[in-house]
Amino acid sequence: MIPGLLHDPTGETSPFATNKASKPLVIITPKEISHIQATIICSQNHGLQIRVRSGGHDYEGLSYVSEVPFVVIDLIDFKAIEINVESRTAWVQTGASIGELYYAISRKSRNLAFTAGICPTVGVGGLFSGGGHGLMLRKYGLAADNIIDAYIIDVKGRFLDRQAMGEDLFWAIRGGGGASFGVIVSWKIKLVQVPSIVTVFTVPRTLEQNATKLIHKWQYVASKLDESITIHIIIKRVNSTSSKKGESNSTVQALFQALFLGGVDKLIPLVQEKFPELGLVREDCSELSWIESVLYIFGLNGVKHEVLLNRVIGEKDIFKAKSDYVKTPISEIGLEGIWPMFYEDGAKDSMMVLLPYGGKMDNISKSETPFPHRYGNLYIIQYEVHWYQEGDEAEKLHINWMRKLYSYMEPFVSKSPRSAYLNYRDLDIGVNNKTGYTSYKQASIWGVKYFENNFKRLTKVKTKVDPLNFFRNEQSIPSLVSEGHK
């Protein structure tokens, strides 16, 4: 079975919040560094905010909409990629997409790759600066964990590399969100090694096929498996093939999907030993090259590699997403309380995606980068709801459904704070003031959920590099020195 499209909020998918927000006064598509520098200085002189767009995938549209007068710097033309096979490094400009990066790597080597996201149309700028995780995170960590240099233009228009910006700012942009600190134009990344053959599988199980017990068991094993394998779960409503006449024709399905950095002969015994209940058989598995596995996981199995160069894949819809971290397994009774919500009208095109941590993620300090969600997290949940009808009625139906599910999950997820992942942006958890000064206390409401104790250090870096808070949005890191608060 081939999985469907996971998620793609580009021009064809709109965060629901963008429907009510204003559009930019002007969109700048710079061709040279000097164009960006001039835009930063000019915008400050005229009292305008800027928003920087890499791939346009911010879950709340913060890279291209605002309720105050603003300018968009669209880095679509900053997409050069240079691969150095000998040093196993690459320079990639911020406007490149993940798909373009993956494709460029694959053209140079079958045994090199990069650990980043699943969706190929996502821009590297936002993904890298917010953390960036995919199905190799248990082996190699986040995208941000593999960044070794960067070029940024700061509030004064200076063009800085790692040495010139200093280690504090370099720390901040690897997981703290680049939009708070300047315009990042390029990243130097450390490529990772992959075998010539990797193995993928997709095993669908409905509630009638014991999905609840399988998800329950998965919680105990997925984060403890060999770090070369990541099994994530996509939970959604599907049409039931076993329903009797007169009964509901829908059920809930859990799609167990995996990437293993090795051959099928090693994978089968590994899964059969640790997770025999899944019933994995050789027929469920496919041996592919790494680049072919990227297409498979995204739902494009067998499609030409060049599709990764497309900026738009899929049909247009509107969506809302949220996230949670799970530190102790949810009971079967707790899981069973979720399923009735998937039959409600607001859940028609919704899903929960469960991605296990462990492995390399357990071995990186919580303070190594601003991304703090390391040891102690079994898995992250991404909640998504999609809809296709514009208007307040459809929006209310689906947003209320999402918030109801999120409320139900509260007892089962992380507490004090209830953590969230920056790249699954969620303005429900707190926002800055639209204009004027935002206090540390107010920003902490959302800041500690994304960054935990790292939030304080982020504010110190922000205060040093952008004291007047020029680079700001609804969830940007606040400066501790701002107008009205000296």
For the largest beta sheet, what order do the strands appear in spatially? 1-16-18-17-13-14-12-15
Question: What characterizes the major β-sheet?
Answer: 8 strands, mixed
Q: Mean pLDDT, as a whole number?
A: 92
Query: Structural class of the helices, strands and pairings?
Result: alpha+beta
How is the CATH topology of the domain at 82-193 named? Uridine Diphospho-n-acetylenolpyruvylglucosamine Reductase, domain 3
The number of E-state strands comes to 18
Task: Give the termini distance in whole angstroms.
Answer: 60 Å
**Which stretches are poorly predicted, pLDDT < 50 over at least 5 residues?**
1-12
Architecture of the domain at 82-193, according to CATH?
2-Layer Sandwich
Question: Counting H and I runs of at least 4 residues, what is the number of helices?
Answer: 13
Shape: globular
Strand content: 15-25%
Q: For the CA atoms, what is the radius of gyration?
A: 22 Å
> Which CATH class of the domain at 82-193 is shown?
Alpha Beta
Helical coverage, percent range:
25-40%
